[in-house]
Amino acid sequence: MTFELPKLAYGFNELEPHYDGATVEIHYSKHHAAYTANLNKAVEAAGWQNKTITEILTSLESAPESQRTALRNHGGGYSNHCLFWESLTPKGTGKAAGELAKAIDAKWGSFDSFAEAFTAKAMAHFGSGWAWLVKTKTGELDIVDTHDQISPISLSLIPIIVIDVWEHAYYLKYKNVRADWIKAWWNIANWEKAGERFG
User: Fold this and answer.
1) At a CB cut-off of 8 Å and minimum separation 6, what does 80 contact?
2) Residue 112: helix, strand or coil by DSSP?
3) Does residue 5 fall inside a structural domain?
4) Cα–Cα dist 114/133, whole Å
5) DSSP assignment of 167-187
6) What is the mean pLDDT of residues 185-190?
7) For residue 92, is it within any domain?
8) Contact, 131 vs 162, CB < 8 A?
9) Going by C-beta distance under 8 Å and a sequence separation of 6 or more, which residues neighbour residue 44?
10) For residue 7, is it within any domain?
11) Residue 196's CB: how many other CB atoms inside 10 A?
12) 10 found inside a domain
């Protein structure tokens, strides 16, 4: 199986003014493309061409030791970015709806309280990584962060929505001011897709 860059559901400039087209293009066509190419190299070297990305991320401990780190880093980088692009939309609704909204209210009391907790997690993350809304194996919602390219899938968690807080994700427009990027992200967060992931 050869992994390919997924097609974006929007043009590079369609997330503006919240996410600038230059950053989207570089992030997608350079960073994500590099993870994809390096994942394919690692998969071939490991003899894992018949595995899906989920199978790879959930069986890293059984990978050949010489390729385990590459599969974790590039497999995670590939998958995390796929989930990130799906977490964005030019037609952001600002908040969740349906069953996901009910589950968020049940867990945090209100969407606003959830948004505060999610923002705090994204802000507090040290260094490169991600903040996620996930569903646990018991079906509960939780907010977690992961470092570098660790995938929540490898941690037996189901990703619902994600923000990338690596500086390359926002530096051209927001410089080193992560708070401004996180604030902007809420305007383009794809709660419709998040609802589908929640099931």
Assistant:
1) 130, 146, 149, 151, 162, 164
2) helix
3) no
4) 10
5) GGGTHHHHTT-HHHHHHHHHH
6) 98
7) no
8) yes
9) none
10) no
11) 13
12) no
Convert the pLDDT of each residue in 132-151 to its tens digit. Answer: 999 999 999 999 999 999 99
Q: Are residues 186 and 118 in the same domain?
A: yes
Mean per-residue pLDDT of the chain: 97
Over its C-alpha atoms, the chain yields an Rg (Å, rounded) of: 17
User: Is it the case that residue 2 has pLDDT exceeding 70?
Assistant: yes
- For residue 66, the domain's CATH number is 1.10.287.990
- What would the mean pLDDT of 111-136 be, rounded to a whole number? 98
Residue that terminates a domain, selected from 86, 115, 133: 86
In terms of residue numbers, what domain contains 134?
98-198
- CA nearest 145: which of 156, 158, 134? 134
Number of domains forming the structure of the chain: 2
pLDDT (average), residues 28-38: 98
* CB contact set of 120 (below 8 Å; sequence gap of 6+): none
